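Hi everyone, sorry if this is the wrong subforum. Our group has a chain we'd like a structural model of before ordering constructs, and none of us has done structure prediction before. Sequence below.
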Amino acid sequence: MAGRHPSTSTASAPVTSNDHDSTTKVTDMDMDSLVHCTRYLTLQDISNMAISCKFFNRLVYSDSIWRRFFRQRWPQMEPFINSQTSGLREAYLTRYSDLQQFKFVDPLETNIYTEPKSSNLLLSRNSVFLSQGPLIHVYSIDKLLEGKASFVSLNDHRARITSMRLFPLKETSLFRNEAHINDNVLVTSSCDHSIRLWWKGSCQRCFRGHNGPVTVLSDKLLGDENGKVFASGGEDSTVRLWSLKSTGKRGQHALKATFYGHEKPIVFMSVSGYRASLIVSMSKDSKIRVWDASISSSDRNSSCVGMTSVPGVPVGMKCHDSLLYVASGSSIGVVDLRTMKTTFTTSTNQGKLYSFDILPSKFLACTGGLGRAILWDVRKNTGTGEAEPMAELDGHIGPVTHLHMDPYKIVTGGPEDPHVSIWAADTGTQTNFLSCSPLDSSCCSAVAADGFRIVTTGYNQELGVLCFRDFNNAVSSSSLNEHATGSKFWCPSTYSDGDESDS
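Answer:
Right subforum, don't worry. Here is the predicted structure as tokens:
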């Protein structure tokens, strides 16, 4: 012990302020080295860096970073990249926004001939789902882009399909392999009183319990990490909860709860954003009920935690956070689900409404009427009475029954209109219009849009056509396009109004 010198031991040496000052910080690195490190980051990572501090915000404006993103997404655009005199970040965001708004005339386009009329259309990352009566046709997008008309037919339903939804495979009992972590299952409801779950081209589960046609499915799953369920509504005026974890082809024990209280068929359902256990249902008589799926009781009415009603025929309904947006008759309104009080209502002055959608992050709503749609800024409409529209989206023939909104665009169309129109979501300015089909005297029967892609079905008395368009590699601007100056927002792929892909 006498020969040891604790004072010279490095393990117990005190840390001085000079030691702190000599520590290398990430901000001490030169910009070129930091830019090189960003090669391992995604666009979302870069977006997060931009809001972390002023130093990183300056860093991520580097043209080297945005040249890489340009080459990754649009490798054929190298001449365009080299011709840019302004910042490549702004050029990237401008092109991204323009593609989202379909401001081009040369998308990749494929037309597939089908039966004359379709009822439901769903567009996912890899597939197009088209229902016609009791049948579902599933088209591979890769094969569509190759011009191939092959499809998988799902034909187990015995009556018209009323609703189609995509839910994560990982939330079901079918999930076995991490290789399928991003896969979805298709869930459909039908007038044959059944609900079916499809995966890999066949029916994996059949859910039965409604005493009549099943009219609607919930837009999202309810529940937490302990177990997810989906909801259905039917002409029997009930709301039913179903587990996706049930096993067996017949879905034994899948029915978890049945909610009673409505007196008319259920027409709309939406899952609350602020509590994952709340589902809102609306019946044909415009009565609205809020149900808490976490409440288990022998009293079949105790799960109802809120009620209200709105005037007029139901048109549409969607939840966002603690608010419920509703369109009925000729008016739109907002209900606070925490108090069940109406916080906003206004007449649209459109007469009968045919369609409705919302963009809550931008406080925008859109309603489809006869010959036109109207864009509303909810922030500017306080109190009751008639409100001033933000923009009129006119030029349509007949009722506007097809309506899609996302943070970039609004898509409108109707069954008497041979075209669908595209509008900028922020301003209501028209950016393009697209023919629904190459058929003479054709009309639009269904529309679905996702990111840079759109699919429409058109028909005349003899034929139907499914038209798929992908704008990702488009370069020729539409004559309607007054070239935008670019997005002033940081990352156009960051938003919370839907599940739209950025590809």
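For your construct planning: The mean pLDDT is 86. Residues 105-148+336-487 form a domain with the Thrombin, subunit H fold (CATH 2.40.10.480).
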